[in-house]
Every structure is written in C-alpha cells, then in structure tokens.
Amino acid sequence: MMKVQVRNLDKISVLDSSGDVDLYSSPLLREALLAEIKADGPSVLVNMSAVTYIDSSGIATLVEGLQLSRQTKTRFGLFGLRPNARSVLELARLHRVFTIFETEAEALEKIGSVQPFSGI
Amino acid sequence: MIRIAIDSEPRLLNILRGVVKFRAHEAGLPNSDAEYVALAIDEAAANVIRHTYGSRHDARMALEVRCLPDRLEFILEDWGPKVCEESIRPRSLDELRPGGLGTFFIYSFMDECSYDPGFKEGNRLKLVKFLKRKGAGCNDEGSSAKSG
Fold first, then answer.
1. Is the separation of the CB atoms in A77 and A99 below 8 Å?
2. Most exposed: A23, A107, B105, B147, by fewest CB within 10 Å?
C-alpha cells in the first residue's frame, strides 16, 4: 500500500513516498504533489527512497509535478531513487530532465541553489 | 501454465505483477529483468483498464503465463472493444508530457508484442520474452528443463 506524508521544513516541503506507485496509487501522489507546488511556495522534494515500484502513471505524475513547478517557478527535485526507479527514468530519458539528488542531506543542501525553470 | 482472471480493478494490478515476477524468477531471469517484465505486463493491463474499458472497474481480464524452454509467453485477454494496433505504438521521447510511456515500456522490455486477430470476443495480446541464459526456462507443456 502506497503512502505519502508531507514534512514541512524551512522553505522546503518533503514528500515522503513509500510503496508501489502504480495506476491505483499514483492519484494519491499526484494530489499531494500538486497541492505542495504553488507560486511563492516552498521548494518541493520527493523522497523516493521507500518507493519499491513505479510505473508510467507514477512517472506521469512526477512529470506533471515538474511541469507545474516550471509554471510556478518552484524548485523541484527527487532524491533517494532505488535502482529500478532510476533505470526506468533513464530509459525514458527523464533522468536529465528532473533534478535528482542521491540523498536527503544533499537535496536539502542543494535545492536552494537549483534555478527554478522559467520556461515550459 | 498459470492463468489468472481478475476484475479491471487497478488495485489488483499488484497481483498480476507478483505472478509475473514469480514466474520470471522461476524461469531463470535475473531480478532486474523480472521486474522489467512485470512492469511491461502491468502497463499492458493498465492500458486495458484505462483505454479498452474506459476506467471501468467491473469488467473482466485474464492473464495467462506460459514458460517454455526458450521463452516466457504472456497472453492478456479482455472482452472490450477491439483495439486498433496502430494506436498503441510507442511515442517519441523527445517531447516532455505526462502520458504515453506505458507502451514505450512494453516495447522496450518485451521481445515480441502482437494481437491475435482470431480472438473475436475482445482483445488477446501476446507478449514474449526470450530467455537467453543457458539452463533457464521450463516447459509448461511438458517436463521442466530447468535444473535445480
């Protein structure tokens, strides 16, 4: 069963996601993600370290989040990807599109210096 | 041979993935390949739910898994409107948009993908993964060819 919990840190929201992200559960991630990404809102990080599986609907949700972050000029990133999730993103050539950090510590340290994308 | 019939209910997709991974492991596929094959079958089943059945959750679908000496065969059946095969070609990865990756994963991870035109009641999709490792595979129509 997938779960999403939001941690509100100083100017950063971390979405701790766990379990399988598939056609059944991706709407839960989508709802949480789109609620956090807003103009003048905090930077948003998705913690993928406990995501055991992700399919195209889960990836589509992350792409939606990315597109919204570009519209709202919000800093947006992922961290803690497991090898299976990373390889699926790489195959879809999305690993260069997302800002991906290895660890939460790195993400928290560097997300502030990520340039919010100004175009679509 | 394994045949499993489920409702077109997204929360049941993890059962299909579990069955596919189990059989793929049993056939000797490495863990990463077994996960990719499970992803491909999951995507095909999700397409049935979303597109063929229009996200109805009370329709039927069935998955048959056959392990043969040189390949794994997956037969996914539904009883919805006929699918136009041309409409399920993978999209270009050059554009950044949320949808359309499922078919790309199916074609990326499976070696063959075809619809059975003789299945009149709905759609019968056959997906094949060839087993390259010596000693892998089995024979659902006869004795096991896998040692150990």
1. yes
2. B147
What is the rounded distance in angstroms from the CA atom of residue B27 to the CA atom of residue B69?
9
Pick among A51, A54, A57, A117 to test the B interface (most B CBs inside 10 A): A57
CATH 3.30.750.24 correct for A3-113: yes
Q: Using an 8 Å Cβ cutoff, are B96 and B117 in contact?
A: no
CA A35 – CA A12 distance, rounded (Å): 14
A117 phi and psi, to 5 degrees? Answer: -70, 135
Residue boundaries of the structural domains of chain A: 3-113
Token match 């063929």: residue?
B52
Contact (CB<8Å) A22/B108: no
What value does the mean pLDDT take over residues A9-13?
93
Q: Do B43 and A53 touch (CB under 8 A)?
A: no
Contact A22 B39 (CB under 8 A): no
Instruction: State the ipTM, two decimals.
Output: 0.89
Beta A43-54 vs A12-21: how paired, if at all? Answer: parallel
Look at the block and give the residue holding tokens 């997302």: A98
Domains of chain B: residue spans and CATH: 2-130 (3.30.565.10)
Q: What is the DSSP letter of A23?
A: T
| A55/B96 Cβ within 8 A | no
CB count in 10 Å sphere of residue A50: 13
A-chain residues near B49 (CB < 8 A): 23
Give the best residue of A22, A33, A84 to mutate against chain B (max B CB count within 10 A).
A22
